[in-house]
């Protein structure tokens, strides 16, 4: 075990210990007298001394010491000690057995020995090793506690530290934590790795330096185990711009497994919500635990291995042995039980598997416990077979839970017993049929049959035509769905018949392209059956609806099964056997294609090296997965591939693809270009024949070589399938699922990169923001969407992210998210008024009033603020203060600036320094006429601004100038401009009155004109106005100013022109936003919980 590092004096210890191993930093020692057959006197004395000591005082026989060259101190980290060197060392580990101490020694060699050489200071070496060993001890302790308690004290302490160090909202659930090192170049930083539901975080405080890393799972583009110069095994996290290596884990396998699960769940939840359904236990991210993730991994493996429906939840996994009559012995393995199934898999891969739907089970009984048959149970099924399981732990509880579920299944779906169909009338392919009949009699003929290596060989030979449809139903377990849902298909057909929509139009378009050369689809009977199956499935599963290649698959299913059976086979393929294949983005097929590329590099390295860019192979092999070779090779050969697929799942397609590439590897390696390589593959696939097929040969759709070429050698499909099993059949379901998980991250992030590039490609020509800054803006926009998804209800995610929409509309933000980005990025900072301005900007940009904005609208608004001409900026400000941006219920409607009336008693005169006055009434009228003439008639005229709207406009301008270096000059300028605009509004007001009345009004206003010192834009609500007469309602409704008035007035003041035309740099705002985006979201969430906290501009 690891020891808390403590000093050890060596002066008198040399007689008690013997060195077994040593390195430049560590020494492994054995206690004298331990393990010595003919020990000397000194050894016997030490052994006798240890034997008589109390057990608490006894010394472990092995230990490991830390020794630093040139240092006077040694540090024991495991039981061990040095025979030479300084007088003091540090003990770091001890062991009761040589095996235990060697494990510690190997860990030190692999994880620390090469690392220590990078330190120059000896004290740093000691500090680093001591810190690492203490962390290992803490992790061992927490692991032991976690086994005994659901919420151990250590985990609670870690949770407190996690919250304090990273300041996430309370909804950010910590899943687990580990001690490890994070590498920065060649220097390791010892610290703690925290894995939460949305982030991977690392914290280190070493040698007075603090390091914090926060990496969202959705930013991870690659997660892999690798090695570097110093360490043999590390975990590498790759994001868009950085790679991070983590190492020195006590249990690296467990850490990597949890990381994979968290990354997979989070990326699929946030990026693949088109078709991905979370398990019920993971629907609420804030409730995810380490145990839930491990259970999900087990469930995924269970469903993939036995190819069961997604609704099946693994209940128990029990070690046991099953009596196998064909081998006349009990076969060791494991029993898996779920809601509706009892399954068995032998420990020896491929030897025997059994799938028992509870619907087929008649009884579950306990037998007498004997020494030969310990804890046995008998499971009897309808076809008069019985399965004997023995060596079951907790037999009582297991049988009780199985009986309860059996009762429930029979209650929900009553069983109607019927005799098995007779095989006496089969006359075709008698040899194969005879072999299958022999197999049925020994291994069973229903879905509950023993599945062994023998049946796999029979499948590889090709299933007889007369048995093919029936065995496809059994192998896929579609027969159970068929039996559990009587009348379901007929109801779907009735509901979907005659409906006209985009899906049915696509189906109609493809009906006559489905095996057009086959006689079954050259008449309306076959076409009508195909139409009914496809439309019924689209009605059943609208999220998938209809995708290309489903028509070819369904056509083949109809050739060998009845219409309703073909429907349930289609359900099994689309929803269980090929998950995520049939959707808008065919994510599942792309993931398997990526896995296939890795298998090519592993099994066919020479071919992978020759075709270093496997994209050419990907373009053709992707169709292998999408169509299961049905449109790639002649139909009579492709159905043999389908036989293997229904028995072995996607594994059969992987290994057959590798066999095809191996058979053509020599030609492919000599090919000059991609086109020639594709020709080689196409010719080979089109010349795959089925010598045993009783029907006529039907060529593939993709044959495009001419007949005048030299005869091409023919390959028998049975030989090709046999080679695929012999050479590439070693891939287990568990390995394939692991590879899928690994490559799903890459594929999803590839789609995200494609979306990003397309959005930027569309937006770049429309704005003046540099491409680099635009990329950062997109990242901030997407992260703002993600931040809201992290801690929102799962259902809200789909509302704002839809991968099926056009690229520019896939990510959208709501008003609250827009406000946070506006606060971080807008150059128009107006103090507390900024948030109100952001709300108005959102209403202005939300053209379709769906309360969501896409990136394009957001960045175009920012572009005007930073790079627009003065008239564009003023126009934007103007629009922000008229409907729809400004509403009656605007948050600022109760501002004290709304109720005071404009000082309409102001005369149309301006004070001069010499006391003279000049009448500007004629000049103002002329200015308005000139603006009207110059107005572009093609542009839609903006509504004029009312008195209330003008007040809000002025308030925004005053707020924008706050804390500007030219603040005083700007305030004076805006006061002058506002006065001018008030008078312009009054001119328009008088223009709507009669001439005499207008003149009388002017004279009256001139008589009551205030002095220049009293000139102010707004009446102070705290002081009485000079003219306290109420403003007539009729007159207030007429008072207006236009955009042209405002722009012309602002142009009269150079300081205002300079303010709006000065160059603005968005980079400082971007840097600030990247730092504070998380903090702003956290502050907002805290303010909801604690109202005393207010959100403010950052």
From TrEMBL:
GO terms for biological process: system process. Residues 921-948 form a coiled coil. Residues 993-1030 are annotated as: Disordered. The keyword Protein biosynthesis does not apply. Residues 462-649 form the Rab-GAP TBC domain. GO terms for molecular function: GTPase activator activity. SMART domains: GRAM, TBC. Signal peptide: none annotated. It comes from the Eukaryota. The keyword Lipid biosynthesis does not apply. Keywords: Coiled coil, GTPase activation, Repeat. May act as a GTPase-activating protein for Rab family protein(s). PANTHER family: PROTEIN VASCULAR ASSOCIATED DEATH 1, CHLOROPLASTIC (PTHR47666), TBC1 DOMAIN FAMILY MEMBER 8 ISOFORM X1 (PTHR47666:SF2). This is TBC1 domain family member 8. It comes from Heterocephalus glaber. The lineage of its organism: Eukaryota, Metazoa, Chordata, Craniata, Vertebrata.
